[in-house]
UniProtKB/TrEMBL annotation:
GO terms for molecular function: metallopeptidase activity. GO terms for biological process: proteolysis. This is TldD/PmbA family protein. One of its GO terms (cellular component) is cytosol. Pfam families: PmbA_TldD_1st, PmbA_TldD_3rd. Coiled coil: none annotated. Residues 22-84 form the Metalloprotease TldD/E N-terminal domain. Residues 210-427 form the Metalloprotease TldD/E C-terminal domain. Belongs to the peptidase U62 family.
Length: 446
């Protein structure tokens, strides 16, 4: 028996003596980080952490405690029991107390440890030579195992993946990118996008066209545009009365071709970008089985996503989205909250084309790469208000200038509603407040 398995048994035995129900979540994580400066992989650092979270039901209330000290089993159980005296009411017939279906451990991709993360960092740095932009960032290789123990038994889910946080900058252009990949391969769309943007670095400053004009949004901007809706469908916003859409489920909201679906069981096979999918856990951190969930169907919001706590507050069933942190990076010190981990925006049967096709179809308009401050009112309003961080002027199907920074407001009901025209045929991962694979989106003039 491994030391961690022995600790889980000890925690369970002591908790059972003081509580009607108990659950232990243990997270083992190894991180190897390579920093890239001016296109050159530099500093390598590693970290390993194991943390335990105990949740107990005692006298009809819930108590939680966490620790990174595996030897202090008595202190962990004592803290959880004491916290239950002042904790929230326990959910009746809790899902976390039922026997969970066995979870197969995730199949890890072929990997060579530190060598693989350095290889990916070298490929990231090579973009500097290929594009002429200065590339900085970090590449993190994470190997994570999540163990969940309840009185009925124990399950384990594990996976290995890479997270990239990069910035490519020129004289005027600054392109941030965050995302994940399961293999040490950069998304092909990212390389193509940076190469195209590098050719625009020397263009003159310009103002946006006056009057009606087309808007082409890059995946980063699409993420910002969707965040109000994603936040409004979050069980936390629904229970707090901060959701502009909660009372309008089942009503038309976006263009009838638009769909938004979370895919927690994304296949661990190479996708069109060659990066591979991620193995999602069989259940969330509340013990609820994970399954694909349709949030928007044919332009109609149809369902919110919930943890056990928010579902109980709304009188509905949990959806398997209660995570401490998120499915990619568990953080036991955080409470379990509803999180989208693999949302995909689809648009069928709308027009689909390459980025070049979408660009060529714009006579006069703007290309919005990224926004600043667009998340401040998320959930309260479908209008994204912020500042243009990076954008470009489009004339006759070509990028003609770099837009000056200015305030900007985008109404997702308009951009993804009556103005919606097309999406790109390629998507890449964007991971910030929530994670998803997103395309370029083209909206016509009003």
């Amino acid at each position: 028996m491994s030391p961690l398995a022995d600790r889980l048994d000890q925690v369970g035995a002591q908790a059972a003596a003081h509580a009607e129900h108990w659950e232990v979540l243990a997270v083992e994580r190894d991180d190897t980080v390579v920093e890239v400066g001016s296109g050159v992989p530099d500093l390598v650092r590693s970290a390993r952490e194991t943390a335990l979270c105990l949740r107990v039901h005692r006298d009809g209330r819930v108590g939680t405690a966490t620790t990174t000290c595996l030897d202090d089993v008595h202190g962990l159980v004592g803290d959880a029991v004491r916290n239950a005296a002042h904790g929230p009411p326990a959910v009746r017939d809790p899902v976390i107390g039922r026997s969970a279906a066995p979870e197969a451990a995730g199949t890890s991709a072929a990997d060579q440890g530190t060598r693989s993360v350095r290889l990916l960092a070298e490929r990231l740095g090579a973009l500097q030579r290929a594009t002429g932009l200065t590339v900085h960032g970090t590449v993190t290789r994470t190997e994570q195992a999540v163990h969940r123990a309840v009185p009925d038994g124990r399950t384990t889910t594990s996976d290995r993946f890479f997270h990239i946080a990069a910035l490519a900058e020129g004289t005027a252009v600054q392109l941030p990118w965050t995302g994940w990949t399961r293999t040490p391969v950069l998304p092909a769309a990212l390389s193509t996008w940076l190469a195209a943007a590098a050719g625009w670095d020397g263009l003159p400053a310009a103002d946006a066209p006056s009057g009606d004009h087309d808007v082409l949004l890059a995946p980063s901007a699409v993420h910002t545009l969707l965040t109000p809706l994603v936040t409004a469908l979050n069980g936390t916003a629904v229970t707090a009365g901060r959701s502009f859409v909660a009372g309008h489920l089942g009503e038309p909201f976006l263009h009838p071709s638009i769909g938004l679906r979370d895919h927690p069981w994304a296949p661990a096979a190479p996708d069109e970008e060659g990066t591979g999918g991620l193995v999602w856990p069989g259940s969330d951190d509340d013990g609820v089985p994970c399954a694909p969930l349709t949030l928007v169907e044919r332009g109609v919001p149809v369902r919110a996503y919930h943890s056990v706590r928010t579902a109980a507050a709304c009188g509905t069933a949990p959806t398997g989205h209660g995570f401490r942190g998120n499915a990619l990076r568990r953080t036991v010190l955080k409470p379990a909250t509803p999180v989208l981990n693999g949302a995909t925006l689809s648009a069928e049967p709308a027009d689909v084309g390459s980025f070049d096709d979408l660009l060529a179809g714009v006579r006069e308009g703007v290309l919005v790469e990224s926004l600043m401050g667009g998340h401040q009112r998320a959930g309260l309003s479908p209008v994204v208000e912020g500042r243009l961080r990076l954008g470009f002027l489009i004339r006759d199907g070509r990028v003609a200038g770099i837009l000056r920074q200015r305030p900007i407001a985008l109404d997702l009901r308009e951009v993804l509603g009556r103005r919606f025209r097309a999406v790109s045929d390629r998507r890449w991962a964007v991971s910030r407040i929530w994670s998803g694979r997103l395309p370029f989106v083209l909206a016509g003039g009003t």
